[in-house]
Each structure stands twice: as C-alpha cells, then as structure tokens.
C-alpha cells in the first residue's frame, strides 16, 4: 500500500498539532493514515487505499458511513436551517422524550457535548446531590479526559494517571478491580459516609472488553443502596449499542441512579448526556444548585442526527442485524483461534468484539508482563474471559501494536491501534 499523502499530511500536522492528532489514540506508529471519506463499512484514505472499518469512529457509527436516508435528511435540514441558536429547539425535547421512553432508569436528561463532559457533570451532580466527595471507579475503566477519573493505582495508593492533575483530585477517587465484590465491599465499608457514587462502565470497553460476572452489577447496586451512594452507569460506549434501545442496563436488568451517554446518542456528531431519576437530575442548574452549562449543548444538528438515528434503529431491526454480524465475526474468529492460537481469547457482545492476546503461561508475575503491568499483585492467566483490567494488561498487549495492527492494515482492515479499545461492526 502506498501512504505517501498520509505521510506528508502527518508531517504537516506534526508542526501545528501536538503529536499530529487531535485525540491521543489516533497517533498510530509510524504514522496514521488520514481519512478522505467513508463508504458503507469502509473508509478510504488520502492515498486512495480502502479499509474495512471496525473502528467506526470509536463507537458512534451504528450504520457505518452511509447514513440511512431519513438520518441524512434530518441532518441536512437542521444544518441548512442554521447551525445553532443559543436558545432551545423542539428537537432537543423530542430526543429527551425518546430516551426517557426507552431507557427505564432515565426520567430526565441533560445533553452536553462529549462523553467526557457527561462524566464530569455526572460526578459533580453526584457530589452535589449527596454532599459527599469521593467516587469509586474500576481499575482499567475509562470515563474520558477528566481530572476526577484519570487515576491509577489501587484505592489506597492512587495517583493521577496524567501530568497536570493535582494529587488532591486523586485522593477523592478510589479505584477497585472490576468484578471483585469483596474489594468493593471493603472500600465502601472503609469510606462509607464519604462516597458520593460508584462510577462503572456496565461492560469495560476501553480495556479489551471485560464483561461483568453474573450478578456483579446487582451486587454493586445493593452495596450502593446500603451506604446511600449513587450508582452511575457510564454507557458512553454501550448506550444504544449493547442491549439495543434499553442499553446495557436493560440487558443486565439494573436501574442505575444516573447514566452517562455519548457516541451513538448523537448520531455521529459531538455529544454527551447525563440522564437519571428526576429528583437527582433536577439538581442541575437552573432547576437546582449544581452548575452545568454549555454553548453548544443540545446542538440542533446533533439532536436531529441522534433522534433520526435512534428512530431508524427502532423501526428497522438494526440491533438484530448488527448483533448477528457481531456473533458471526466472534464465532468465526473463535474457530480460527481454536485452530491457530488456542491461548488467545475472543471477547465481546452485541456489536462489540476484540481478540485478547492472552499469555499462555499459567501464572505471570507482574514483572514479566511485556507492557509492564501497573498492578502490584501477580495476575493469573484467564482461561476463559478476562475478569478485570489487569487481566488484559497482562496479555501480550504489545503484540497487537507491533505485529497485528500493521499486518491487518496492510490487508485493508482498520482496527484500533492497541489491544485495549473495542472493535465495532456496523
Ligand atoms: N466514557 C466512556 C466509557 C468512554 O468510552 C469514553 C470515550 N471512549 C468516554 C467516557 C469519553 O467520551 P469522549 O471521548 O466523547 O469525551
């Protein structure tokens, strides 16, 4: 494949954009390919190379790159009426009504502009509503580029995972291993009256794909209730993808107090949202006391795209279709791996999938991990599916970036550049 134009564009970008990209995950070694346009399930790069796309914008694109006609028409009509107004529009109400009708725990919703903004606002809301400061998060979970959740280490030795964040932020954030009921129980008992919320992705989607063990979320729900903390489901990835229009919370039968959305709810345009019980969400200003605001929030083009997307999905068996494709690719890959690399693991559900390059050793000390496991404890090999973030850290994560990704790219398959982010079918 020829990548001359992408190389030249990357050279130009490096001079004027830090690292040459506007989102860190796009900085692919030795250089990213620059996309010229989408075409169905494919993207075409600046050199005319065509790739089958399993990145799908990191999740927002349920239909691939060709919007169904009603979605295209809604977007074009909203854009040609005028980009935005700084005043409310009917379509915001329509989308809010649609979401509250389909997602059982959501009675009221505030739209913002990104998943990050949604989790920032949800954490502030939980703190304001409960009058408590601390939040519990999952090791290996991701909630966007925000101060309160860019935290690593275990709950008693946590530190910011990025330069530029004061240690004081990390003090209020308590990471626990996902799927570990006892660890959660212990942290909640220790910090009982200080915990505003447990913030969790129903399925970890930024660290391989890690599913909850049976009844895990039910237990988390009960433990939150016992200490009066809120349960926040971060459904930025899973919202309107896993579990169809009821989202992952519908699939697992859980009623969180708050839910954060992003990605699909904006039909491919910048979006985020915080939904939940009226009593809590009404604490946002101007109804309540927790400040929340945004020039672009409820942007009419985004709202039109989101509404038309969800309506199209509701009326056209979209989830049956994409989930069947997800089953097909997962089972096809399982067959290939059973034959060629039985130690590797295929994970995912609905339209999400990933291969985890599990280490074949039966027990791996953290020192042995190729990528340098962040955890202090030793990690055991998972025979079936990874149970938490450190399981995935201890896979041969390096192999993805060094060997697998470049080889797939050369064959015209577009995957995320590392082992951790999900792949999506459209
Ligand atoms: N939460 C989750 C679960 C995410 O996966 C992401 C982004 N991948 C975010 C929050 C942040 O969303 P955004 O990138 O739109 O700010």
From TrEMBL:
Coiled coil: none annotated. Its EC number is 5.4.3.8. GO terms for molecular function: glutamate-1-semialdehyde 2,1-aminomutase activity. Keywords: Cytoplasm, Isomerase, Porphyrin biosynthesis, Pyridoxal phosphate. The modification N6-(pyridoxal phosphate)lysine is found at residue 263. It comes from Halocatena marina. Pfam families: Aminotran_3. NCBIfam families: PRK00062.1. Belongs to the class-III pyridoxal-phosphate-dependent aminotransferase family. HemL subfamily. This is Glutamate-1-semialdehyde 2,1-aminomutase. Its cofactor is pyridoxal 5'-phosphate. It is an enzyme of class 5 (isomerase). It is found in: Cytoplasm. Pathway: Porphyrin-containing compound metabolism; protoporphyrin-IX biosynthesis; 5-aminolevulinate from L-glutamyl-tRNA(Glu): step 2/2. GO terms for cellular component: cytoplasm.
């Amino acid at each position: 494949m020829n990548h001359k134009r992408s190389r030249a564009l990357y050279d130009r970008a490096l001079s004027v954009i830090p690292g040459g990209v506007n989102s860190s995950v796009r900085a692919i070694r030795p250089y990213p390919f620059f996309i010229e346009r989408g075409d169905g399930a494919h993207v075409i790069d600046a050199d005319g190379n065509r790739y089958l796309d399993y990145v799908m914008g990191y999740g927002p694109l349920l239909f691939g790159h060709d919007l169904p006609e009603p979605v295209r028409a809604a977007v074009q009509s909203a854009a040609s009426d005028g980009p935005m107004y700084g005043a409310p529009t009917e379509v915001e109400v329509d989308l809010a009504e649609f979401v509250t009708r389909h997602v059982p725990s959501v009675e009221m919703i505030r739209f913002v502009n990104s998943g990050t903004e949604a989790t920032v606002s949800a954490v502030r809301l939980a703190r304001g509503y409960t009058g408590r400061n601390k939040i519990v998060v999952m090791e290996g979970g991701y909630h966007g580029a925000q101060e309160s959740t860019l935290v690593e280490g275990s709950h008693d030795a946590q530190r910011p995972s990025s330069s530029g964040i004061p240690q004081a932020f990390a003090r209020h954030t308590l990471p626990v291993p996902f799927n570990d009921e006892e660890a959660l129980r212990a942290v909640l008992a220790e910090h009982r009256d200080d915990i505003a919320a447990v913030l969790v992705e129903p399925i970890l989607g930024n660290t391989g794909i890690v599913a909850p063990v049976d009844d895990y979320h039910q237990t988390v729900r009960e433990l939150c209730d016992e200490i009066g903390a809120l349960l926040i489901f971060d459904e930025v990835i899973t919202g309107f993808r896993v579990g169809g229009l009821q989202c992952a919370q519908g699939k697992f039968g859980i009623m969180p107090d708050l839910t954060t959305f992003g990605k699909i709810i904006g039909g491919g345009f910048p979006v985020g949202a915080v939904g939940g019980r009226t009593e809590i969400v009404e604490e946002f200003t101007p109804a309540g006391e927790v400040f929340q605001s945004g020039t672009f929030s409820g942007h009419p083009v985004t709202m039109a795209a989101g509404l038309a997307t969800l309506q199209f999905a509701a009326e056209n068996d979209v989830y049956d279709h994409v989930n069947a494709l997800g089953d097909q690719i997962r089972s096809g890959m399982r067959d290939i791996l059973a034959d060629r690399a039985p130690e590797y693991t295929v994970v995912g559900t609905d339209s999400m999938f990933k291969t985890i390059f599990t280490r074949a050793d039966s027990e791996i000390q953290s020192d042995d991990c190729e990528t340098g496991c962040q955890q202090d404890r030793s990690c055991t090999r998972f025979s079936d599916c990874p149970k938490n973030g450190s399981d995935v850290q201890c896979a041969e994560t390096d192999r993805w970036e060094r060997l697998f990704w470049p080889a797939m790219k050369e064959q015209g398959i577009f995957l995320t550049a590392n082992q951790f982010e999900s792949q999506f079918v459209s």
